[in-house]
């Protein structure tokens, strides 16, 4: 159905029912159809609302109005028209940047934000040649096919999905095709996203060549310090089409945590316990969520990592590769506003190559910080190198 907002008819696909809604915003080249393989797995439990951005899919195509602000206002208008009282925003690529701006305004009813291969909030400055190439990428079946195979995907799409992507890309209006590379991709919303105060889950494809995991760890995560990131193996930029089952499971698990009010660590003690559990299980994505994305940690080799999520992930992956077992016991928690100084007795058991075990122990200090989403995360770990 179409909903008239901002003098533009915005097409919306809805499925399911329930008090909590999931609102989906698609990528540059897609439509509400992009989400069908995902929403079909969620509609039994949630109301799903998939929007065609103006100029895409079946929405109206005005000549102007293709800034991030314009697309955000359209989606906000749909949410208002549908009278959604509780909802989670799910944005993919271009739609992810739109969702970031929407969430930064702290709208009533927003309970969480899921960013799938999102365009980062920082501007991407294109040369005139790059801008022309991107603007013309969806001008013919051949050009769309080339982009699908060489840029957008790491897994082959079924013939039906491949045809859908081609049709959606070709159907877009000239204004929509030009608006992203000409204006929106270079918009800077880094200041705005610092205001996001709901739980945030970032989902990245391991083999994404558009918005790579490294780019997101560098350009997005430090600007939303409380965001947690999941990397889906063997997947490219079109993860809702390449890996819809994995995407649906990630959305479902995050949404279930929101409903249980368990999407964040609610106390410093819970944060420390989560560190032990995820470290010992080798769950890197969960382990990363224990830390602020602006965190500082002194590693066992005395290297200090600061405000670098990519380096953090690599170091923790190497540290847990041999499956050591850590146990932290809180000696004292000293609060000061939104910070807590934790003094911890720790022990680390490592299995050596000859099968024998080595046990190290000592005292560590941590500064644990409460973020904008009211969750507690480690901001500084072992700053004095106490061992």
Number of strands: 14
Helix content: 25-40%
Indicate the mean pLDDT: 94
- Largest sheet, strands/sense/barrel: 8 strands, mixed
Number of helices: 14
Explain this structure.
The protein has 387 residues and is α/β, with parallel strands linked by helices. The mean pLDDT is 94. The protein has helices spanning 36-39, 68-81, 94-104, 128-135, 141-152, 159-171, 174-182, 190-193, 213-219, 239-242, 244-259, 268-281, 284-289, 309-320; strands at 2-5, 8-15, 20-25, 47-51, 86-92, 110-116, 200-205, 228-232, 291-298, 304-306, 325-336, 339-351, 357-370, 376-381. The longest helix has 16 residues, at 244-259. 35% of the residues lie in helices and 27% in strands.
Short structural description:
Helices cover 35% and strands 27% of the residues. Helix 1 links the parallel strand 3 and strand 4. It starts with a strand and ends in a 6-residue tail after the last strand.
């Amino acid at each position: 159905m179409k909903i008239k907002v901002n003098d533009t008819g915005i097409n919306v696909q809805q499925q399911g029912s329930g008090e909590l809604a999931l609102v989906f915003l698609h990528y540059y080249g897609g439509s509400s159809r992009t989400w069908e393989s995902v929403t079909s797995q969620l509609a039994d439990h949630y109301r799903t609302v998939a929007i065609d951005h103006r100029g895409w899919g079946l929405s109206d195509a005005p000549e102007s109005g293709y800034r991030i602000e314009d697309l955000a206002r359209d989606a906000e208008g749909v949410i208002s028209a549908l009278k959604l009282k509780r909802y989670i925003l799910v944005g993919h690529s271009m739609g992810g940047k739109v969702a970031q701006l929407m969430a930064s305004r702290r709208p009533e009813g927003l309970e969480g934000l899921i960013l799938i291969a999102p365009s980062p909030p920082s501007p991407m400055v294109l040369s005139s040649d790059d801008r022309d190439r991107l603007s013309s990428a969806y001008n013919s079946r051949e050009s769309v096919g080339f982009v699908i195979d060489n840029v957008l995907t790491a897994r082959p799409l079924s013939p039906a999905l491949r045809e859908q992507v081609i049709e959606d890309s070709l159907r877009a209006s000239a204004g929509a095709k030009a608006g992203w590379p000409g204006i929106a991709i270079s918009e800077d919303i880094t200041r705005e996203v610092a205001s996001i105060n709901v739980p945030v889950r970032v989902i990245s494809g391991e083999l994404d060549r558009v918005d790579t995991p490294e780019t997101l760890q560098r350009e997005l995560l430090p600007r939303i310090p409380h965001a947690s990131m999941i990397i889906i193996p063997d997947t490219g930029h079109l993860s809702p089409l390449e890996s819809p089952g994995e995407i649906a499971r990630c959305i479902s698990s995050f949404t279930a945590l929101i409903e249980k009010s368990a999407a964040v660590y609610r106390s410093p003690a819970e944060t420390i316990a989560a560190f032990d559990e995820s470290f010992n299980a080798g769950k890197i994505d969960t382990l990363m969520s224990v830390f602020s994305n602006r965190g500082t940690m002194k590693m066992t080799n005395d290297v200090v990592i600061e405000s670098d999520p990519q380096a953090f992930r690599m170091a923790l992956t190497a540290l847990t590769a041999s499956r050591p077992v850590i146990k932290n016991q809180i000696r004292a928690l000293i609060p000061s506003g939104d910070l807590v100084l934790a003094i911890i007795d720790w022990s680390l058991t490592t299995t050596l190559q000859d099968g024998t075990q080595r046990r190290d122990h000592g005292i560590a200090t941590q500064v644990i910080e409460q973020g904008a989403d009211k969750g507690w995360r480690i901001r500084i770990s072992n700053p004095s190198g106490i061992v």
